[in-house]
Amino acid sequence: MEALRKNGPCCICITKNKNCPKNCEFSEYFPYELKDQYESANNLFGTPNIIKTMRRAPEKEKQMLATSIIVEGNAWTKDPVRGGFGMVRNLMWKTVLHKAYLHELEEKN
């Protein structure tokens, strides 16, 4: 599958300091536009581990895996203590607060 590259080489080829071929297997999943976000994922997992994991994944799951890698890297950048767990916990807490507020509004009516 040939990826549509708009602004430059994929993030993996940039990190490995090599030319990104037109049929690069990673350019679809880690395009140049995600360069800053990929840097966080690279700091967390390392490019060799990302490559290994992506190559082992079934084709239909690669896009979801790439997104998960980027999101997890960003989560650990934002919250170095709790990472993705902290993000999920905060969302769950907000849900509890919103449900309580909704319940309070329903009682008033």
From TrEMBL:
Domain LOB stretches: 8-109
InterPro entries: LOB (IPR004883)
Protein's name according to its UniProt entry: LOB domain-containing protein
PROSITE patterns assigned: LOB
UniProt similarity note: Belongs to the LOB domain-containing protein family.
